[in-house]
Amino acid sequence: MLLKLNNIFKWVQSGGQRVFLLKDINLSIEEGEFISIMGPSGSGKSTLLNVIGMLDDFDEGEYNFLDESVHNLKEKHRANLYKQYIGFVFQAYHLLDELTVKENLEMPLLYSKKSSSERKSLVADMLDRFNIVGKKDLFPSQLSGGQQQLVGIARALISSPKLILADEPTGNLNSKQGEEIMELFKQLNDEGVTIIQVTHSKKNAAYGSRVINLLDGRRI
Amino acid sequence: MFRNHLKIAWRSLIKNRIFTGANVFGLTVAFAVAILLSMAAFFELSYDQFHKKKDAIYQVYSSDQTSRGTEIITANSVPFAPALKNEVPGIKNISRALSENVLITFQDKELNFDAEFVDSEYFAIFSFTTIQGNSKNPIPDKNTIAITEKASKVLFGSMDPIGKTVTMLLNKKEQPFTIASVLKNIPTQSTIDFDVVIPFENHPTYLDNIEDWDAKNHPVYIELDKSITPLQFEKSTFDFTNLHFKNNIENLIRDGAKADENGQFRQVHLTLFKDISFTSFSNNLVKVDKTFPYLVLGIAFLILFIASANFINMSIATSSKRLKEIGMRKTLGAIKGQLFVQFWLESVFVFMISASFGILLSYFLLEPFQTLFRTKVSFADIINPMVLVGFFIGVFGITFIAGGYPALLLSKLGTLQALKGKLGVAGKNGVRNTLIIIQFAIAIILISCTLVLQGQLQYMRNKDLGFNKEQVISIPLNGKRDSYRMVELLRNELQNNPNILNVTGADNNLGRGKDGSMSTSKLGFDYKEHGVTTNMLVVDYEYAKTLELELVAGRTFSKEYKADNLSLVINETMARELNESNPLNARIVLDDSITYSVIGVVKDYNFQGLNKRIEPLTLFMDKEWSLYYAYVKIAPKAIVQSYDAIKEAWKRIEPNAEFQGSFLDENLDRTFAREKTMTTIITCGSIIGIVLSCIGLLAISLLMVSQRTKEIGIRKVVGASVSSITVLLTKDFLKLVGIAFVIATPISWYMMNEWLQEYAFHVSLSIWFFIGAGFLTCLLALITIGGRTIKAASVNPVKSLRTE
Questions:
Q1: Among A82, A103, A106, whose Cβ lies nearest the Cβ of B333?
Q2: Most-buried pick from B243, B306, B525, B635 (CB within 10 A)?
Q3: Hey, where are the domains in chain A?
């Protein structure tokens, strides 16, 4: 088992009342799954993804990731955990504008303290694998949306995570680019990477092995 | 990792060119100014610190309790010092020190030197090093002198000075002296400055005054024994004082004086010599006042603060552009510490660049700075390991705070919050506004101080001092000739020149002449059972006429009256002091037997600085006493030609002596040196302060406007006019300036009021100085943000909404 959520609650205080963002979520995910989280706007999809990615806290419940109790970890350990095992892909790509493609790819490696030669070879592998060697010295603003997302995925993959969390990865792309990205995810999943994606589109959800539906913070 | 940080830092600095530029510019200027100002301040503070025994050296002064209050006397009589050492325990070394100009002749050279008449223990007290000759006692006997390297070079060139004989004009007699030692040049940071040291016994007045406890003409310095504190020493002098000044004390009691807290009417006091350049004895108060150097340091600090506040504000304001980066880095595993270090390094980068530019700039500005601020400070005087370490700690400290605060703020942000691009810290504007308020409060304080200082300076320059300062030239009589003869010759030489109106002489200057000396002579005597103290001035005929002194009663000295050497002309204050219904009836007996009579009263005029009230003054005309200055009054036209004519006449009469004539208004201006320097420093400080504050304000307003583009667009769509939007955008900032004004005004009012109290004559502290400063600041702030705001307000809303 890769991760397990037990009775997860998350709320915000609003006008003296608790507004629940996540309500009693139970979920366990095995390695190698490709899961799509679906639901209308405001149903808590992104919140759930962020909780799984340890970017967000929750108020109640237990979260175990690879036998570590995430709810008991300090920030530093949590950061160590997710930078080792989790890669993130965003709808808005979130590439750093000041860095070139190559440097963007290199950045996660800097935080995992890899040596310079190791970083170089990993970046070169990744550029090769995604066929973007020719674009390695370009800045994000010089790339198309699809290409930027490609770099985003490459960046997520560079530290060989077990899990990739993708928040509407095709949301800003046209349908052709979107399809290519989804194909890429499928391929990665076939290679053994666990993927959790948030999506609005039935078509994209169909790439996954399992769909989790949310409404008002609850699983339905 | 480090390289990556540098790379990111560099690129984001380049991207925010305008802000980086504004920051680097502001910080560079601030660093340069701070370096120069603190150099000047530390230079001032380093005065007299080179004496090895500085903590044990004291200057001796006395206080008298008179019926008018306490009077401070720094001058001492000839027998005072030897008696003090013999009779009061605790003195390790003691020396009298009388500074005077002497004329030294060697072969065909005839030169004026600053001489110090001292006792042999002088060199045990002060650390003036000998480079040639006797180092223990550089003046081993009565006919030997010591000279500085510099003087030696002037007098002997490359010859070996040791053993050479020179002649000196003392007591109108040429006397031979042997050079016994050569001293290292006096350090720049020394209050005591001289070319020649002469044994005290050679002073012209020495023999006359050897038993005279009343004629006081020199300061006394002592080195106190380690076993005794200055306070204990002062207490142990009571018997000594009561014995030797018995008569004076009885007179004081008779005149109704009240004893001081120790039950004494006269007391010997000590004041630390190492603080002597900050010690003032004026207005009968001994005050060690280091405000000036600390004020300068304070201004340096304030300017650094303004620039650093700009940096903090701009860093926080521009950080919204970096939120995505922060979020992303956190998602990729960066922890708080790493982000802090990254952002902080960026600041360090900016600060290092600015500090380096600042050093460079201060290096180039040093020369104009020296002239402008009348300081002799140079890098060589200041640079030592301590200062360098201090400088780096200073820069590091500023970087740590100014760079660390925004870095901390950014690194604390939550990951998701950052990714969503929200700067949700509520207190952010609070910090920003506080900083802006402080900046402008500083600027307003500096500006209002500038206005008050300029006002006071203008007041001192323009005040009617009671004599003609524009048309009168005073010339130091530094030649060999008898002074009366010299004035006479000058008068004869110039009498045919229609532009020369009068020539006269006196034994004191008005203001500070080119010879740089200032002195006071005082006389105390008993008049009708009460003690009177007056300033003395020996004058030649036509003194009052030359200076256009206004005669209130009687007449002035005149050649028609033969006995005028026993006549006195007094000023109004002196007349009040004599307390006669008709001061012209006053007969004053001096030296037990000689009776002088008052023949005239002149209107009070400011013969001393404007920081002093007008004191009693008595004019003598006795040819027994020398004159030291000639005064020439010229016609208001052809001033330059007249000056040259006087110079030529001087050259003909006294070809060997340098002509040092100068107009009295120049002389007076020289006495304002301190005020002028202070005004320059504060004026520059306020200009730099306000410019830097406005740069900061401009940057912040640019960001505000760009962040509110959408709001502006929406407001316009629903019908707001350009002017209402401009008001909306400017209002917030002007409010801050307003608060700054409210905070700043009482502070600067208090400071300026304190400062003006030092002047017996000063401008009145009107509210307009402060309103003027506030108005000026508001206006500048308005100009700074106005243009940009109006432009933003006039943009077509369709455009501003589309860009969202």
A1: A82
A2: B306
A3: 3-219
Report pLDDT for B803.
46
**ipTM reported for the complex surpasses 0.90:** no
Q: Beta B144-148 vs B69-73: how paired, if at all?
A: unpaired
Burial of B469 (0-12, 13-18, 19+ CB in 10 A): buried
Give the residue on A whose Cα is nearest the Cα of B321: A97
| Average confidence (pLDDT) per 10 residues, chain B, 804 residues | 77 83 91 90 87 93 84 90 92 92 86 90 91 86 91 89 89 87 89 92 88 88 92 91 88 82 88 89 79 88 90 82 81 81 86 92 90 79 80 87 85 77 60 88 91 91 89 87 88 88 91 83 82 89 90 88 86 89 85 84 90 89 87 90 91 86 90 84 89 87 78 74 82 88 93 87 89 90 85 75 51
Asked if B179 and B141 count as a contact pair (C-beta separation under 8 A), the reply is no
* CA-based nearest distance A180→chain B, Å: 24
pTM of this structure: 0.78
Count Cα atoms within 13 angstroms, Cβ side, for B268.
30
Which residue type occupies B494?
L
- Nearest-by-CA chain A residue for B10: A98
Check CB contact under 8 Å for B333 and A55: no
CB pair distance less than 8 Å for A99 and B8: yes
The answer to whether A170 contacts chain B (CB < 8 Å) is: no
Asked if A56 reaches chain B (Cβ–Cβ under 8 Å), the answer is yes
CA distance A201 to chain B (A): 23
Report the residue of A54, A104, A110 to disrupt the B interface, i.e. the one with the largest count of B CBs within 10 Å: A110
3-class SS string, B544-573: HHHHCCCEEEECCCCCCCHHHHHEEEEEHH
> What CATH number does the domain located at A3-219 have?
3.40.50.300
